[in-house]
Amino acid sequence: MTNTELIDKLRNESSLTDDEFRQLLESLDEKDEEYLYARARERKEEFYGKDVYLRGLIEFTNYCKNDCLYCGIRCSNKNAERYRLKKEEIMSAVENGYKLGFRTFVLQGGEDLSYSDDDICEIVSEIKRLHGDSAVTLSIGERSRESYEKFFKAGADRYLLRHETANEEHYSKLHPNNLSPENRKRCLRDLKEIGFQTGAGMMVGSPFQTIDNIIEDLRFLKELSPEMVGIGPFIPHKDTPFKDKAEGRAEDTLHLLAIIRLMLPKVLLPATTALGTIDARGREKGLLAGANVIMPNLSPVTVRGKYLLYDGKICTGEEAAECWQCMQRRVASTGYEVSISRGDAKK
Ligand code: SAH
Questions:
Q1: pLDDT in tens, 257-291
Q2: Model-level pTM?
Q3: Ligand 1 centroid from CA 13, angstroms
Q4: Gap from CA of 309 to ligand 1 centroid (Å)
Q5: Does the beta carbon of 274 lie inside 6 Å of ligand 1?
Q6: What single string gives the DSSP state of each residue in 319-344?
Q7: Using CA positions, which residue lies closest to atom 8 of ligand 1?
């Protein structure tokens, strides 16, 4: 089949055989890309129209007990300047964001057990008490099913936990031995069962990743059928074992955004900060390839430069207010518009 025919098949059947995926991932030329992105946009607009959702990201701690080889805040990076936000600081970031128009707050951090389940629940319920019209998303890594149940009862709506890679061997090349792909997947299934809108995803072009790994990731995503999928290019960090590895490619990321949109048409799909870091118009290109979410940084300016998962991260300086306007301009430049609703996944 030609690539155009494969794209039509993917559009109509929302999946392909492994060989067909391989062909698409290896041989898209510029004309095919345009066709692929146009189909992805159509599919997105069927469910979400021109709306783009903004999520206010609050990076509340960069302490982490894990030692993931790719990540700049891994515990063995002694050069990372560590910080933790107090509940009051988190709440003031939320207030600031609410005034700007954010109706989703994403609390993300390293795996920092100095925040107990009760601490997290207290923060979540306080946000929901003050802003019942807003969604709260957690992205704090692997915890027990019981902990996830507590967070959900406290009012958390969504949980982001990228699976990172669905392939066991690849997983072991990116992570220390005490982390397993089974537990990561167990977490994701628990989160879905409990009732969270759940997000999975992987880095594009992470070290040792093969095309077959990516196909496995796509199959895993299809089977899990998460409400959200976060993908972005791998970018090396100077104080990690992967400091000399090549970064992921923007084109590959855009292809995968479009493919994921066609496989999971209703998915909430961010154009990530990492994509905006390797290409100055990466996020806009992401929106034009099927993404419909952007996650601007709402962390206090004093800590923004410290939550560094990779080198060169953008938006570590500006004031939050400028950030909102900057996003509105960027989104408008694509022909889409920022929605002020909390932007839940369509059923
Ligand atoms: N501790 C939380 C949040 C992790 S940070 C958790 O475990 O889910 C969010 C995401 O950033 C990670 O899931 C990973 O996919 C991505 N990330 C980490 N290091 C990166 C790097 N060097 N380049 C690109 N993305 C990276």
A1: 999 999 999 999 999 999 999 999 999 999 999 99
A2: 0.98
A3: 31
A4: 7
A5: yes
A6: -HHHHHHHHHHHHHTTT-EEE-S--P
A7: 141
